[in-house]
């Protein structure tokens, strides 16, 4: 395996084989395993006929850690040595569309609208805040962006303090992503909205 791992991941609904990870340069299969989708295996197979909801999400951090989410659990594993570093079953189901991981932090919002920000390694809580009505979300190095009720709300990730709502109102968000400067969202009418967040 090269020193710069560039993984390709897929999430499938087969018990004990939740992740298939390949080296994107050589296409070598480097990991198969994980019980992440066992409680949700049936939902995974429903994707073949019904694409109405997010069943799982995988994010790769800058430390070559993979973070996988379903409604019922989160799993963190190291792509280099293929070791599972942490796993937790949620007490309440989470909205998979609001899950994300970036660098050292991950975020999820449960069915009661409580957003929880954790450290990727060890899954220790950093902060929590209320994000009722959130449909999709993402984070960057210091902020959380959650699409709620026609707008994108912003929280900081250290104390969970609500800051403001991005100026442009948007509805029916289908995808969101952020880096240290920009936030982008796509809506159901295939329009891409881009904000220069500029929180430096």
From TrEMBL:
Superkingdom: Eukaryota
InterPro entries: WD40/YVTN_repeat-like_dom_sf (IPR015943), WD40_repeat_CS (IPR019775), WD40_repeat_dom_sf (IPR036322)
UniProt protein name: Transcription factor WD40-like family
